[in-house]
Design brief:
This is Anaerobic selenocysteine-containing dehydrogenase. It contains 26 helices and 27 strands. The protein is of the alpha/beta class. The structure holds ligand MGD (2 copies), iron/sulfur cluster (SF4) and molybdenum atom.
Length: 747
């Protein structure tokens, strides 16, 4: 180590694993990134994306100044001019057309940034619009809805207690590639290997023999989109064979008999025809989950991005309840986060539940869920004239042009907006449509606390990392940018002073719950500003907090900050009934709207399966649409390949390494084929987030190997009617060879 080297620690903000990193700096430059061995939560684990943070920091294409579009071209500008332009255009637009004329779209990285997660809602509130969209309806909204209905809050999502389980069944998740989702679990591989070493079993059910399946004791192919039939048959079997055991939860559960009746038609034989999983395997799984315990069934994105997403998400938890594995060590348990968790506020045990159907979208009449409308509705809300038409859009850390179905239509719609503002770090497929782009900062210049993921973690913990490097002179933090935008939307003017806005917002918020103690509470957190102040408030008011001095020894931000590897808050503990916020005070096993929706599934029981369907895929060196510009990740084999089973390849005349055309209706894309027996016959897999060949993007490296955009093929109008989640899996496509002389000659 030279004299100028320093070591700093930073929680990785790239995926849900939230690994602690150890970063070496020499003369202000990052020289090495590795896992932080004494991180209390991730214990030194790191994946290649964590290492790529250096490339992200140094990426010449990463935006460092605001951009403004002048005569169709982006030019660098000052924050002052950028905000002035937005004010000039937004204020009269809202005055003339009303608050719903503005929409927001919030993308995935916002969930990983304290400033974005805490301050984007401030912007949305200031706009006062009902047109709120996010990546949630491309992802986990079904799970949020089913959890809300069953447990009373959108974020009361039970997660596998992997360190104590004996049997883990994974349905539609590939944590070996994704590093876990709706389940914060760094080093899944190590934990799965420990499970096997102590005699436990891992079972994977997936249309592809994934990296996770390769690690498993057992893998079963399942026909995409058919999870509901498997799950209903599991529940059916638990009842039919007298295996349902509620145990401790018996007095905390409602709806058992309604549930029994509702799943009666879903026999394993009927499910077998639909899922392609034999009936005896389905029965065996039900028995194993009921008797090999502690056991846990975990469903993830494959179970959400389909037309029965909410039903599937629901029945995953139902199986865990009926097998005695919900809220039990080694089963599916509720984390107890140190900050920001609604299910830790108040005495609990009962609550108002989740509000449903408060309003519907203007054009398609789709229900709002958790305050959001389906992303598939955004284009039509922009295109369709009339009162409430969307004329201005704010995107925050989102790339819906690539990440949502039929980006071509959305792109045309974006070009018709009167105003589009993006808060983003790249000029990419989405932000190229903006009038103004406001940059984010490098993760090294940003402090970090995970607001969302401790609510989903395999173990309770509190970890904070300060910024490693100072923000460059004159560069605003993203929370400051969002506050400015909020002030403009509220008519306070682009000149409004950020610190004063923040003080006023915090005083207002604290006033709402602290009453006569407001002054004392504000004084207690006065050493912090911005996100840190909100964090200190949340930690101290939270379940492990110091109660602003009333519980000495309790958590404060200062205490968390002083512990370099974070604070371990222990293994997950049973939380029922305290975690519940349902009006009945019980776990609702048979919510009315879910039972009613089963009829839709029942109607499909005898439908024929399409000949060929498409599903997605994740790769450990990629992250949705936006990390293809980083050299350390982009190198190596081309990853945007269509995996095709050998039988399908033969049938459709496509060859390994050759080009093929995938099409649906009037849409087609050209892809590179990789023939692979890891696919279920009749299923093609292509990763999403590719297609970096749009004109005007500033993604030098990504554009060299743009790949094909899977979402071009998908239908923006196909969604789960309950949650509004897009259908991204199991859509019927056709496959045909594209003759390419150069490639044929090489073979
Ligand atoms: N077919 C198919 N489509 C899918 C999926 C699938 O499985 N199949 N998965 C879906 C899922 S799960 C998700 S979550 C969505 C994601 O959908 P989106 O969130 O819309 O897309 P991302 O690709 O994550 O784009 C992230 C954007 O944030 C920007 N960004 C990155 N870091 C920062 C930062 O620090 N600050 C700011 N301001 N901006 C930043 C990037 O430049 C990029 O523009 O994609 C979905 N699309
Ligand atoms: N490296 C990397 N990590 C990521 C991301 C990334 O893009 N790259 N994205 C992040 C995001 S935003 C999210 S939401 C998470 C997602 O995390 P995961 O849910 O683990 O995501 P995937 O790896 O796409 O795994 C989904 C699996 O479902 C299978 N599948 C597809 N359709 C069906 C179906 O109908 N039924 C069943 N049972 N299975 C099906 C697919 O074959 C795939 O193996 O990953 C996060 N982590
Ligand atoms: S697993 Fe996720 S959090 Fe951990 S280093 Fe990789 S990208 Fe970062
Ligand atoms: Mo996601």
């Amino acid at each position: 180590m030279t004299g100028t080297e320093t070591i700093a620690h930073r929680i990785c903000p790239l995926c849900e694993a939230c690994c602690g990193l150890e970063i070496t700096l020499a003369d202000g430059a990052v020289t090495r990134i590795r896992g932080h061995d004494s991180d209390v939560f991730s214990h030194g684990y790191i994946c290649p994306k964590g290492v790529a943070l250096k490339d992200l920091h140094e990426d010449p294409d990463r935006l460092r100044t605001p951009l403004i579009k002048r005569d169709g071209r982006f030019v660098e500008t000052t924050y002052e001019e950028a905000f002035a332009e937005i004010e000039r255009r937004l204020v009269p637009l809202l005055e003339t057309h009303g608050r719903d004329a503005a929409a927001t779209y919030i993308g995935n990285p916002a969930a990983h940034k304290m400033g974005l997660l805490l301050y984007t809602p401030v912007l949305a509130r200031a706009l006062g619009t009902r047109n709120i969209y996010s990546a949630s309806t491309l992802d986990q909204m079904p799970k949020q809805l089913s959890s809300g209905l069953m447990f009373g809050h959108w974020l009361s999502i039970p997660v596998p207690d992997i360190e104590r389980t004996r049997l883990m069944v994974i349905l539609g998740g590939n944590p070996m590639a994704s590093n876990g989702s709706l389940w914060t679990v760094p080093d899944f591989r190590g934990k799965a290997q420990d499970l096997k070493a102590r005699g436990g079993r891992l079972v994977v059910i997936d249309p592809r023999r994934t990296e996770t399946a390769a690690l498993a004791d057992e893998h079963h192919f399942i026909r995409p989109g058919s999870d509901i039939f498997l799950l209903a048959a599991l529940v059916h079997t638990l009842f039919a064979e007298g295996l349902a055991r509620l145990g401790r939860l018996a007095e905390h559960v409602a709806g058992v008999e309604e549930l029994r009746a509702a799943v009666a038609p879903f026999t394993p034989e009927r499910a077998a025809a639909h899922t392609a999983i034999p009936a005896d395997v389905i029965r065996g799984l039900a028995r194993a989950l009921a008797t090999e315990g502690p056991a846990v069934l975990y469903g993830r994105i494959g179970t959400c991005t389909q037309t029965f997403g909410t039903l599937a998400s629901w029945l995953v938890d139902v199986v865990n309840v009926l097998t005695g594995n919900l809220d039990a060590p080694g089963g599916a348990m509720f984390p107890k986060a140190a900050a920001f968790a609604a299910n830790t506020v108040g005495a609990g045990g009962k609550g108002r539940g989740v509000p449903l159907g408060r309003r519907r979208s203007r054009v398609s009449n789709a229900p709002e869920v958790y305050g959001e409308l389906p992303i598939g509705c955004l284009a039509e809300e922009i295109e369709t004239p009339g009162e409430g038409q969307v004329r201005a859009l704010f995107t925050v850390a989102g790339n819906p042009i690539l990440s949502s179905p039929n980006g071509d239509r959305l792109a045309r719609a974006l070009d018709s907006l009167d105003l589009m503002v993006s808060v983003d770090i790249y000029l990419n497929e989405t932000t190229r449509h903006a009038d103004v782009i406001l940059p984010g900062v490098s993760p090294f210049q940003d402090s970090h606390y995970d607001v969302a993921f401790p609510q989903l973690s395999y173990r309770n913990h509190a970890r904070y990392s300060p910024a490693l490097l100072p923000r460059p002179d004159g560069v605003m933090a993203e929370w400051q940018v969002l506050l400015k935008l909020a002030a403009i939307a509220q008519g306070k003017g682009a000149g409004a002073e950020v610190d004063a806005l923040d003080d006023a917002m915090v005083a207002d918020e604290v006033g709402r719950w602290a009453g006569e103690h407001t002054g004392a509470v504000l004084a207690a957190v006065s050493r912090w500003t911005g996100p840190e102040r909100l964090l200190d408030l949340a930690l101290r008011a939270g379940p492990y907090g110091d109660g602003f001095g009333r519980k000495p020894g309790g958590l404060t931000l200062a205490a968390v900050k002083d512990s370099a590897g974070g604070i371990d808050l222990g293994a997950l503990q049973p939380r029922v009934p305290e975690v519940l916020r349902t009006p009945s005070g019980r776990i609702e096993l048979a919510p009315g709207i879910l039972v009613a929706d089963l009829a839709r599934a029942q109607a499909q029981l005898d439908a024929a399966a399409p000949d060929l369907v498409i599903i997605g895929r994740r790769d450990v060196r990629s992250n949705n649409s936006w990390m293809h510009n980083l050299p350390v990740l982009a190198k190596g084999p081309f990853r945007c390949t269509a995996l095709v089973h050998p039988d399908d390849a033969r049938r459709h005349g496509v060859v390994h390494g050759g080009r093929a055309r995938l099409s649906r209706a009037d849409k087609a894309i050209e892809v590179q084929v990789a023939v692979s027996a890891e696919m279920m016959p009749g299923v093609v897999s292509l990763p999403h987030g590719w297609g970096h060949d749009a004109e005007g993007v500033r993604l030098g490296l990504a554009s060299q190997r743009p790949g094909a955009n899977l979402n071009t093929l998908l239908d923006e109008n196909l969604r789960d009617p309950l949650s509004g989640n897009a259908v991204l899996s199991g859509v019927a496509v056709t496959l045909a060879p594209v003759p390419l002389p150069a490639i044929q000659a090489a073979e």
